[in-house]
Design goal:
Arc Repressor Mutant, subunit A; alpha/beta; 234 residues; globular; 41% helix; homodimer
Chain lengths: 234, 234
Amino acid sequence: MSVGRPSSAKARRARIPEPTVARLPQYRRLLEAMDDRRIATVSSVELADAAGVNAATLRRDLSCLGTCGTPGTGYDVPRLREMVDRALALGRDWPVVIAGAGYLGHALARSRGFNSGGFRVAALVDIDPAQVGTVVAGAVVVHLDELDDVVRRERVALGVVATPASAAAEVVRRLATAGVGAVLNFAPGFVAAPPGVTVRNVDLAAELQVLTFYAARSVPSPTDGAGAPGRALG
Amino acid sequence: MSVGRPSSAKARRARIPEPTVARLPQYRRLLEAMDDRRIATVSSVELADAAGVNAATLRRDLSCLGTCGTPGTGYDVPRLREMVDRALALGRDWPVVIAGAGYLGHALARSRGFNSGGFRVAALVDIDPAQVGTVVAGAVVVHLDELDDVVRRERVALGVVATPASAAAEVVRRLATAGVGAVLNFAPGFVAAPPGVTVRNVDLAAELQVLTFYAARSVPSPTDGAGAPGRALG
DNA sequence: GCATGTGAACACATTCACAGCA
DNA sequence: TGCTGTGAATGTGTTCACATGC
C-alpha cells in the first residue's frame, strides 16, 4: 500500500463484486440520460436517489472503477459515463447471435437494448423451415447448422438462448463449440456452463413466482396501517 | 425454544431470505420433473447438484419452509414439492394483466411460465387501436382505459409491464391505482414502487451488459490453461 | 450407516461516519 | 462548506462440521 499512482492504479484491476456489476447498467442508463440533457456534474446522493440505492453504496461501487469524483463538486458526467462503459466493456462491437426465432427471440432481436451500445444482432438461428430465411429487424434467420459459420464470420462472442427448455442444453453446447464465450439463457431450468464459457440463466417465469411470494405476503394482510413499505426489488 | 411442534411451527412464519426465495422456483421445477418421473425421494446432495448450489445451502433454504426431510433417507418429493408451492403461494389462482401488447408482451402471454402453476393471463392492455380487440393466446387485448374494469372483474393481483420505457412509470401508477398489488417491470430503468405495491424490475438489456462484463474478463485472456472455470451465474 | 437440520465460523456486501481535499 | 473516498461497524448469506435421529 504505497507505490504507484494513488487512486487509479490501485483500483484498476481490482475485482468488482457481483452486486456492483449488476448495478452498473443502471448507473450507465442514468448517466446517459443526464449526458443527453447536458448535465455536467452529479453528486453521489443525486445519482444514488435516481437509482434507488444508498449513496455510500454508490460511492463504493464507483470507487471500484478507479474513478475520480471531485470532493465538493461531484462526478463529471461524461467522464463517469465513459468509465462505466469501459468497466462493462461496452463501446466495442459485440455481435450477438440469438438462438430461437420464436416470439421471445423476435422481441429481443427488435429491442433497443440488444441493438445499441455496441450490441448488434448478427443473426438468429432456428430449425423451423418456416423461419429460416426470414429477416427480423435487419437480421437474417439461418438454420442451426450454419451456426459455426455465422459465429466465425461475424466474430460472435455472445449467444442468447430463447428456445424451448428441451433444446436449451444442446443449443448451449453448440454455441460453446462454435466458439461463443458467453451465453444468456432465457430457457427455464439450470443449464450448466461448458468449460471456459460463462452462462447466465434468466428465468422469466421464476421472476413471476418470486413476485408472487412478496405479493402474497402483503395482499392477504391488509391490516398493516400504511401497508408494506412497497420496496422495489431487483 | 421448547413448546409446540418441533420443526414446522418454529419455521412456519420465519422470514425467508431473498436469495432463498429466488432459488425456490428452481427447486420447484426440478421437483416437478422428478415427480413426473415417479421419483419418490431425493437427497439434499442430489437436488443441490441438479440446481447447481451447495448442499448445505439447499438444506438451509428448505429448513426455512419448515420442511421435514427424513434423516438417512432424504426428502419426500411430492411432499416437498407441495411445500415449495405453498411457500411461493402457488396453487391458487393468479390472474395476470400484461401492459404492452408488443413483441415482448406477446411472448410473455404465450409463454408456459405465465400460463401454468396458477398463473393465467387475464388480459393485455395497450393504447394502440390496431392491437385493441385482438386475441393473444386466448387473452383479449383491451384499451388501457379499461384497466380498472379488468382488474376488478378478474381480481387481478399481478401486473406485468412490457411497454416502452417512456410509458413504464405512468403504467405502474395506473396499475397501482387499479388495485394491482405487485408488478413485474420489464421496461428499462428504475421504477419506484407506489406505497403498498411491490415492484420488481427485470432489465433484459442489463443482463446482457452484465454478461459482457464477465465475457470480456475471460475472452481476452486465453492464457489460463483450462480457462476460466465457467461458473454459471444467476 | 447415512442424511437431515443447525450452531458456529466465515465471507461478503451494505451502511455509517469521518478524514481529507476542492 | 460540501462532497468524495474509505476505515470500521454492522448486517446478511454461505459454508463447514457435527450432533441428532431414522
